[in-house]
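Re: the multi-chain job from yesterday

Posting the exact lines I submitted so nobody has to dig through the queue logs.
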Amino acid sequence: MLETEYCSLSPKNIYMKTILSLLQKTRVASSQMAQLSDKKRSELIHAIAEALEENSSTILAANKKDYDAMADTDPKKDRLLLTSERIRGIVSDVHTVADLPDPTGNILLERTLENGIQLQKISVPLGVVGVIYESRPNVTVDVSALALRSGNAAVLRGGSDAVHSNEAIVSIIHRVLERYGLPVDIVQLLPTDRKFVKELLQAEKYVDIIIPRGSQKLIQFVRENSVIPTIETGAGVCHTFVEKSADLQKATNIVVNAKTQRPSVCNALDTVLVSTEIAKKFLPLILPDFEKFEVEIFADKRSHEILKTTGYPHLQQAKEEDFGREFLSQKCSVKIVDSFEEALQHIEKYSSRHSEAIVSEDKELCEQFLTRVDAASVFANASTRFSDGGVYGLGAEIGISTQKLHARGPFALEKLTTEKWILRGDGQVRE
Amino acid sequence: MLETEYCSLSPKNIYMKTILSLLQKTRVASSQMAQLSDKKRSELIHAIAEALEENSSTILAANKKDYDAMADTDPKKDRLLLTSERIRGIVSDVHTVADLPDPTGNILLERTLENGIQLQKISVPLGVVGVIYESRPNVTVDVSALALRSGNAAVLRGGSDAVHSNEAIVSIIHRVLERYGLPVDIVQLLPTDRKFVKELLQAEKYVDIIIPRGSQKLIQFVRENSVIPTIETGAGVCHTFVEKSADLQKATNIVVNAKTQRPSVCNALDTVLVSTEIAKKFLPLILPDFEKFEVEIFADKRSHEILKTTGYPHLQQAKEEDFGREFLSQKCSVKIVDSFEEALQHIEKYSSRHSEAIVSEDKELCEQFLTRVDAASVFANASTRFSDGGVYGLGAEIGISTQKLHARGPFALEKLTTEKWILRGDGQVRE
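And the result, structure tokens for all chains:
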């Protein structure tokens, strides 16, 4: 990241020593956003989708600048790239967000107190949502749409790699906000100078929540430096336990799907645990499909002995660090366990508490697993790949939260709200 | 705080260089607590209440040691003191917590996905709840009861001032846990050595939530040093806006009650805002009661001119710092505002977003106030003193949260839970 890069949207910023004035403007503007009706918010977001579509050539030209500036060897290059087709996908997602039900104004609790006061707890916008992300310009659009849909303002700190793309996108959003008579500060793209990240993380007066999206290093940095409450969308170290009573055909399908269908995502399988009793019978069943995808297996001592007899070509002996490891590629570790309790202990020790599965025909054991395993999503006889806000019917998600406060599991629109207690009285005082 | 004080419960600890092993034990023990049925948890807590009552003389003797060791001039001395009557109050509160409805196991969402998977979102215990507090030994009991009621384990870091009291209380709780065949590590009293606080705040692997209870300084320290998600139970800078259409009798009752009934608490009034049109008529009405309680008034220029003509004895000119100040005593500031918008701007600038009130007979203006003011609790025509979990019908509260994530306003039993997504399938895989 360059140390001297500034957001060209506001030329004044070139002389700016602090971003606090920008954040303050967003805080002030956020109250106008919070007061917009559901219908107006939905209209506004449809209008943004249309404007992005109409101006896609501008976005593509800006993106080309970013793309050309990035080294061809940079693994982030594909994530940075926008194409006409990708923009069409983004635009369609924005229309979908516009049509999601309003998460604000829900009455969460309602009662009349003994003294006659009418008490309500309702869902209201958080206020200002801050997002720190890396080179994906689609995040700029996704987060803006979700924040505005829920009546929030957004503070965006994208990567310097994507600065031209992000500026082009935010300029288009700003023109739509202006057309609706709203302050452009409702969507604030921050300069990418690194020192401003720390400043943002200390600005608890102006920003209500920080969501880091990106590498573990970024998340760790935010966790350690933020005084603003943070939602962590962390790594997924996901286990599937094939228990001795499992239907082996189901188990094969589930393990193969969880590992190979999209290995680069957080809900993909990392470790297969298998009961001793069925290991010899089960392990060979997954090999034909694993071989198609060239899945590299890191096997513990006992499973290695079974697997080496099959001549499977991508087999290694597991080291300790291959358990609790998020592979994000066509690799997995395998371990044989002697009991249900041993499987649970292994998961307790190595899980990142994201998504955990059991395959078993023993209903009672399945229920024990679902109750006792501490993870955001727990599965019986299904692939961990289903761990997803869209699949759960929540609409677009910002990420999968692996922490326990406020949001756990898919972090979607409804979690961009907070609660407010409203009391309507007629002169009541406390005795 | 002494630098070399250790918890005498575990003599081995004298040689302990780190508290991580204690926290790990609590993490392991927490799963046994999470599996206890509602009925067993309720029984356990009633048993704790009974044991505290039976052993009250032991607690009183330990408390006397702490009390005698504290300087007579220490303002914390009264908060430290336990008496037979106070213990009876604490015991009664514990019985009440035991009878609260179980906050875990609630089905928050339930649907069948198109592929036939049964999806549920349910409330489950957080796991390990950490509390850092100062000299009130009753917190040891309250927090233990609330944590256990919701299926959590508790890590307690009390002040060194109350070490004997806390040890006596926790020993009694431990004996009850043992009687129920549960590990004593479910309630872990940490040594009071200061360096362990930082260690606790970094132990995200073992502790799921940190709740600081005490001074602003303590809360600030926790916010800056914790990598564990924190619930802030912050200060209350509370305004009451007496709008020009107000019923002046209601307004007088509400302002006097909000200021004088219990000034030391966070929901007490700090600043009165009053419309220009009614200031001359309204301000003299509050003076007779204010004089009874010797309320010191810090008045802005215009209200000072009105008030000085009354000869009110406890009148001063307000300085800038008297607005946005939490008095916690029989003091308040007064300001005259020219419009509804000016009142809202003042509150936006100075409020700590805890509890804010309007007194007005204009229904529409009341609704605008309730919608636009950003605070945990907002009131129309009622005293801010009602801002309380007990009043809201939530049972015992741990504090009033002034932040927006997870819990806002009264932080009670239901917020000691997190969510878990459970998926029951029959071999489904993702396309």
